[in-house]
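Title: Prediction job returns without error message
Component: structure pipeline
Severity: low
Priority: P3
Assignee: unassigned

Description:
Job completed but the reporter wants confirmation the result is attached to the right record. Sequence as submitted:
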Amino acid sequence: MATGVLLSAAGLVAGGSGAARAAGDAVVLDEGELDLTPRLVDGKLELQIDDRGGDSTVVRETSEVVLHAGPATKEDLIGPAYPILGDTLLSAYFFNGWENAGQIFAPEPGWNGTEAGADTEVRLAGFEGPGRFAMYTYTREMDGNDESPVQHLNSGDSAHSAFTLAKDEERAVPTWGFTEEGVYRLTLTVTSGGSTDTETLAVVVGDDVDPADVLPGDGSTPTPSTPPTSTTPSPSTPTAPAAHVIDNGHLDLAARPVDGSLQFQIKEGTAHNPAWHEPDEVVLHVKPGARRKITEGYEFLGPVGDPVWWLPIQQLDGLIWPGWSTDQFKSSEIDGRVAFRLDAVQGPGALSIFTESSVGAVTMHAHSGDGLPDTFDLSVPTHRHTVWTFAQEGVYRTTFAVSATLADGTKVSDTETIAWVVGDDVDPSTVTPGTGDEPTATPTTTPSQSASTSPTATASPSASASATGSASASPSATDPGFATSGTGGSGTSTTGGLASTGAQVAVIGGIAVLALLVGGGAVLFVRRRRTAQ
């Protein structure tokens, strides 16, 4: 029997209650702080769950709960975890992981040993699942001291089938790792003071399976019967052709030369094997895995702790990664730069498009919350990525006007509307691409008379203007001219392709210092992160 005292890891930010009823009358917990607590009840030991995701603590039976590790819990695997979860892995799904601590809505399970009256042995007595499960402690302090992880439980290693939960441990927060998507059932036996209890905890990992459809415990709970449904066919109504839904992978919103002019199109895939789509044929799906917590320094998106649907500047598997491209043109074909103007956003909340520098400065390229249009421009040829954020779930429609001046002086432009579905409240396959009539809660301004025609890209900016471009060290802003222009939320018109207008936010003071500190820590972290072969 392998035992070890469970070490306490750093706690995470608690979210709101994620409790929802599911199959077999289970309670699905997909966010918030909770503890697995061996507790004496009428003189007998019981393993219960103390759910603190809401305004007060709710004690739940383990066999009635389904934990959900959603897509946002997927992280890169750090070096010390290789032997724990498997050397062939690049990433896995984690409760209490490193990268997303305090930034995502997910369960934050800990262990409380103070209710048993004595030390408690916790044993993994049974396991079912599509991959490997492990529970271990590895803190940043341990990383800094080059210490090894402390393993507690491991479904693939019988030497780590049990650990000792100390009687004075109020909240230990180890990392839980799962290597594959699917349904896991962890059968846990707790023993303390001669009393024993065995419970099975159901965990749904990823989004291949709806946790509301999963029976709790060992899966033997009968599903409530449902009345038979009528087989009488209902009258059919004509439907519009199904859109092409893109919900994962690389894509570019591109200015493309077509028949001697410019067209705004969507490139799906990499440069080696792309597929080109007209914007009014596509629905882009921002899946629930993009949901994050607004953190300090990003209050321009909303109150700290509120949700935002965030597509980061780096590619994340399972999410779309929209970028910008002018690289279908040759530099000799364009006089100056290509302008991208966001004219309108129709949807339930604000859309923000921005880049970040290495010291925490945020440059806003477009923000629908303070008025539109907003314009930014790119040199030719360029391929860049930005951060995209959506304030609410629902259907959005973004209207972009893209323009340039050809080398012969001809002005060319194209205006298109892209449909987006954010979250899972709406099935993206049911959404009509292009324009639509959904209501919008986002205030936008009508383009001014001077801006109501096609946006004008700057022609041949001077050398001095080029030198004043974005100082961002962000990978998406290395183009010295990835700046905004036109009439932004301030209503102030600018000239020259490099001046910044609209909502430009400088995150100063504490956040800048924090960014530097985090940057220093990131060097250490990258040292230990597995890289692709």
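Comment from assignee: result matches the submitted record. The CA atoms of residues 117 and 421 lie 51 Å apart.
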